[in-house]
Design goal:
Helix content: 55-70%
Radius of gyration: 27 Å
Mean pLDDT: 86
Number of helices: 4
Oligomer: single chain
Number of strands: 4
Low-confidence stretches: none
Distance between the termini: 50 Å
Largest sheet: 2 strands, antiparallel
Strand order of the largest sheet: 1-2
């Protein structure tokens, strides 16, 4: 594949990772956590877990010991998309280096191949 295609794939993967992280982060915050947990999510609210500090990696905000406000698929998706981004970026660099090495340099016909050959 061309380096440009790998770079585009890396960009799309990175954008997908940012969007997934944003989705997970948006699920963490609410104006009233107790109401969010009990009324919207139908979960028991436990202040011991709910008032604990939020974590931004991995994304987590608990209502109680067994329920997290961030969906279960967000953190693995972010890690997977980060890995895909790094692989595609590495493949873009490798393809670019390979392509530059495959293209021979133009030989200048006026210049002697060895500096001591043309001593007149």
């Amino acid at each position: 594949m061309k380096p440009r295609n790998w770079a585009v794939a890396a960009g799309i993967s990175f954008l997908s990772m940012v969007l997934m992280y944003g989705y997970g982060a948006s699920r963490m915050f609410s104006l009233d956590k107790q109401e969010e947990c009990t009324v919207v999510l139908h979960q028991r609210y436990d202040s011991k877990y709910a008032l604990a500090k939020e974590q931004f990696f991995p994304l987590t905000q608990k209502c109680n010991a067994s329920y997290d406000m961030v969906p279960f698929f967000v953190n693995p998706s972010v890690v997977l998309l980060l890995g895909v981004t790094l692989l595609c970026a590495g493949a873009a660099v490798a393809a670019s280096v390979r392509r530059r090495r495959a293209v021979p340099l133009r030989a200048n016909p006026r210049r002697p191949s060895h500096p001591q050959e043309n001593r007149s």
